[in-house]
Amino acid sequence: MKNKIIVTGGCGYIGSHTVVELIENNYEVVILDDLSNSTEDTLERILKITGTKPTFVNIDLKDKTATKAVFKKHNDAEAVINFAAHKAVGESVQKPLMYYKNNLYSLLNTLSSQLENGIKGFIFSSSATVYGTPETLPITEENETQRPFSPYGNTKKIAEEIIDDVIKSDSKLQSISLRYFNPIGAHESGLIGELPSGVPNNLMPYITQTAVGLREKLMVYGNDYPTKDGTPIRDYIHVVDLAKAHVLAVKRIIDKKQEQPFEIFNLGTGNGFSVLDIINTFEEVTNSKLNYEITERRAGDVPKLFASTKLAKEKLGWTANKNLHEMISSSWKWEQKLRNNN
Ligand code: WQD
User: Regarding the domain delimited by 4-185+236-269+306-321, which CATH topology (the fold level of the hierarchy) does it fall under?
Assistant: First the structure.
């Protein structure tokens, strides 16, 4: 019998890639999603890639009654992977209450519903944003967390604290929080990828949308940072590598390999690339020039972030395999297929 995994937000960017990896590793998947930032069409795309269409429930996890009912129905699940959350940094500054309400109510309903039904495993989709401006690099899981700049980031930090408290209350919860650095890229099929609503906040979708003509020009936010070329450095990580880490985290929980009931792992490559590195590699991959302009710094940007990958390697047995070229060419393939409607 296959192990059943509930994936909240499974139609979204990282969620859909994780669902593909779970199916390919012989798990049965139930997706809970309200399609607020994704489409049901993703299910057909997952079917095309894997030959399996996951069970799908259209549900708003802020709805306590509906959430309890769906967990009762799937109380034979082994674990929950929680991707369901709003994630636009800028929007969260404008609408903090919407972010706290959505990201935290849904978390609370998920945790209480799964525990009521004896589902102990919980994988949380976290972010390197919880480290704020790090004092030392590379960032290890031992680095102090700081209050993130945005309400979005703060929901991630608060969520980890909630999980920690629930575990300390002897609830039997077994959790792994995965702190992503900068996820980019798309599945090699070009069938699933990132679909930002409105104007993208993040660098990669802004670049690909500029290159297809949807945006006029990329604004590079500052070139006076203390880095090799003056632009900020980030640890970009291929979404498929990220997805594979979730499968390993699920396995670690199911196989009872955890050393503590709440474990935290950074997910990055350990390599830092500047904004200009990304632009230059994009131009190489596409053999074209990108329209961009250097402008003012963006509030809240940190000069340099990259992960220590040691712990994830030692404990999860995970390392990122895909290089920057693969990340960028897959993002580009996805954007082109999307605009050609296939
Ligand atoms: C990367 C670099 C920008 C856009 C954010 C969140 C984090 C996580 C990932 C997920 C920076 C520069 C960007 C543009 C630019 N969230 N840039 N022009 O800020 O590292 O992290 O996304 O859900 O929590 O904070 O990523 O892609 O926005 O920016 O010059 O139009 O690109 O200044 O140096 P960031 P990003």
Answer: Rossmann fold (3.40.50)
